[in-house]
Amino acid sequence: MHIVLENDIIYIPEIETQKLSRFSLTGEYLGSVGERGRDFGEYLELDGFSFDYEYQTGVEMIFERSNKLIQYYPHGSIKEVTIKGAADKNFDVNFLKKHGDIYIAAIGKAGTKIHDIVFLDSSGTIIGGFPEGYNKGENVERKGATITQGEVVLLQHVFFYIC
After folding, report:
1. What is the pLDDT of residue 10?
2. CA–CA separation, 161 vs 118, rounded Å?
3. Domain with 101 in it: what CATH number?
4. Ranges of residues in the chain whose predicted pLDDT is under 50
5. What global pTM score does this model have?
6. What burial letters (b/e) apply to 138-152, b meaning 16+ CB within 10 Å?
7. Pairing assessment for the beta strands 102-109 and 115-120 based on DSSP bridges
8. What is the mean pLDDT of the chain?
9. What pLDDT shows up at residue 28?
10. SS3 track for 3-62
11. pLDDT attached to residue 153
12. Which contacts of 11-19 are long-range, i.e. CB under 8 A and separated by 24 or more positions?
């Protein structure tokens, strides 16, 4: 479970009931964000990392794994943003975040290890990716120190990072 504390509100995803509940810092229940379903503004599935919050506007957002970001505005309106072309299932969307008037998405080509970051406008149209000539690097595996005590191995770490 991934509990989020934003703007003095505790958000707790209840995975079994598929509900995102709000609580005050004193534990008072403040309602929930969105609803599970298939209609506009509803999400199919909630996981522990689906939630985001925008401080400037107070917008609560749920990234729904069917490739849409649902935005719940404080005054009651709802906006959905989906990546145009996502319906053809040529790629998977790993996350979709809002930053000001643009959206940032991590996508992967279905069935491959090809991943990228793309930028979208408010209609979900891809407006750019990494700048020309940007070297995204490669995954490098490095092994940390192995600590032994007698015949027992106490610790061994494998680190992956992008260089």
Report:
1. 92
2. 20
3. 2.120.10.30
4. 139-142, 146-163
5. 0.67
6. eeeeeeeeeeeeeee
7. antiparallel
8. 75
9. 96
10. CEEECCEEEEEECCCCEEEEEECCCCEEEEECEECCCCCEECCCCCCCEEEECCCCEEEE
11. 41
12. 11/51, 11/53, 11/60, 13/46, 13/47, 13/48, 13/50, 13/51, 15/46, 15/47, 15/48, 18/43, 18/45, 18/46, 19/46
What confidence tens digit (pLDDT) does each residue in 88-131 have? 556 677 777 888 888 888 777 777 777 778 888 888 888 877 65
Give 120-138 as a DSSP string. E-TTS-EEE-SPTT-----
Give the number of residues written for the chain: 163
Structural domain span for residue 63: 4-162
Residue with tokens 């490739």: 67
Amino acid occupying residue 60:
E
Quote the number of domains for the chain: 1
β-strand 9-14 against 19-24: which pairing, if any?
antiparallel
pLDDT of residue 101: 83
Q: Structure tokens of 12?
A: 């707790």
Specify the residue for token string 């729904």.
64
Task: Name residue 72's beta-bridge partners.
Answer: 60, 78
Cα angle: 28, vertex 32, 35; to 5 degrees: 165
